[in-house]
TrEMBL record:
<dbReference type="GO" id="GO:0004743">
    <property type="term" value="F:pyruvate kinase activity"/>
</dbReference>
<dbReference type="GO" id="GO:0030955">
    <property type="term" value="F:potassium ion binding"/>
</dbReference>
<keyword id="KW-0460">Magnesium</keyword>
<dbReference type="InterPro" id="IPR001697">
    <property type="entry name" value="Pyr_Knase"/>
</dbReference>
<dbReference type="InterPro" id="IPR015795">
    <property type="entry name" value="Pyrv_Knase_C"/>
</dbReference>
<keyword id="KW-0808">Transferase</keyword>
<dbReference type="GO" id="GO:0016301">
    <property type="term" value="F:kinase activity"/>
</dbReference>
<dbReference type="InterPro" id="IPR015793">
    <property type="entry name" value="Pyrv_Knase_brl"/>
</dbReference>
<keyword id="KW-0067">ATP-binding</keyword>
<dbReference type="InterPro" id="IPR036918">
    <property type="entry name" value="Pyrv_Knase_C_sf"/>
</dbReference>
<dbReference type="GO" id="GO:0000287">
    <property type="term" value="F:magnesium ion binding"/>
</dbReference>
<keyword id="KW-0479">Metal-binding</keyword>
<dbReference type="GO" id="GO:0005524">
    <property type="term" value="F:ATP binding"/>
</dbReference>
<dbReference type="InterPro" id="IPR015806">
    <property type="entry name" value="Pyrv_Knase_insert_dom_sf"/>
</dbReference>
<keyword id="KW-0547">Nucleotide-binding</keyword>
<feature type="domain" description="Pyruvate kinase barrel">
    <location>
        <begin position="3"/>
        <end position="199"/>
    </location>
</feature>
<keyword id="KW-0670">Pyruvate</keyword>
Length: 297
């Protein structure tokens, strides 16, 4: 496939850049042959997560899940944990609008987590809608207890400067207060002049944001009996000013239930699976501890 372009400014176009087609419905498979090779390589080496780019519907995630399941059977026993699938929301076909959502909800139902990929999303939809879409996606993902990552241009000015702008500080802080489990640096550490300063700056903003959240805890809706148990544990810890919550979990579900209620204290998650422990670290405030015993969630 060839794309012919006309240069209309004096900027420099680097190598290996993506191509966006705003407004067009691109009917491509969820996994190319190269993608399948990469996923199989990762599964063979026991990777923990797969980030699925430009997810358009639940069918895209389900296609990846099917391939992962078949590939896992080639390399691992049936009870070995599979990699978690993170849906990168960066496509106008997700149809996130101010009054609601069409297929974001179906993607959220089948994915293991969400990444708000603001770079490409800001090209695919009107720029003024990016912040409302981010807040909506974080809120909905929090409500079901799945991890949500906010990514792209969080401290973009620190690619060139040792200090962030005031608006970038607000951006990171608001993501934390809104309920993001992870905030992600990209160009700041991949090609920036101040990678260490970028990480330390983001960490200081996160700590400030979390101290604010601790004073105004998040209270999602309770829809299952397990939610009731998790909510009670978080509320008791808050009332008693506990320093730690301990969760015993085999497959991580109990720890994820507790994560839904964003407790203000760390959650020590004891699990007999090292991989489950690594995967739990994507949730805010989870500290896995490996212990080889038989635990039933």
């Amino acid at each position: 496939m060839k794309v012919h372009c006309r240069v209309e400014n004096t900027e420099v176009l680097g190598n290996r850049k993506g191509v966006n087609l705003p407004g067009l419905v691109v009917d491509l498979p969820a996994l190319t042959e190269k993608d399948k090779q990469d996923v199989e390589f990762g599964i063979k080496h026991d990777m923990d997560f797969i980030a699925v780019s430009f997810v358009r519907s639940a069918a895209d995630i389900e296609a990846v899940q099917s391939f992962v399941k078949a590939t896992m059977a080639k390399y691992w026993p049936a009870d070995h944990p599979s990699p978690k699938l993170i849906a990168k929301i960066e496509n106008h076909q997700v149809r996130i609008v101010l009054v609601g959502v069409t297929n974001f909800d179906e993607i959220l139902a089948v994915a293991d987590g969400i990444m708000v990929a603001r770079g490409d999303l800001g090209v695919e939809i009107p720029l003024a809608q990016v912040f409302t879409c981010q807040k909506m996606m974080v809120s909905k993902t929090n409500a079901v207890g799945k991890p949500v990552i906010v990514a792209t241009q969080m401290l973009d000015s620190m690619i060139r400067n040792p200090r962030p702008t005031r608006s970038e500080i607000l951006d990171v802080g608001n993501a934390v207060v809104d309920g993001a489990d992870c905030v992600m640096l990209s160009g700041e550490v991949a090609q920036g002049k101040y990678p260490v300063e970028s990480v330390s700056t983001m960490l200081s903003i996160i700590k400030e944001g979390e101290s604010f959240v601790a004073r105004f805890p998040i209270s999602p809706s309770i829809v299952t009996g397990r939610d009731s148990l998790a909510s009670a544990a978080v509320n008791v810890a808050y009332e008693l000013k506990a320093k730690l919550i301990v969760a015993l979990t085999k497959d991580g579900n109990l720890a994820r239930d507790v994560a839904k209620f964003k407790p203000s204290v760390p959650v020590m998650s004891y699990t007999p699976s090292r991989k489950v422990g690594r995967q739990l670290q994507l949730h805010r405030g989870r500290y896995p501890c490996y212990h080889h015993w038989n635990v039933v969630d």
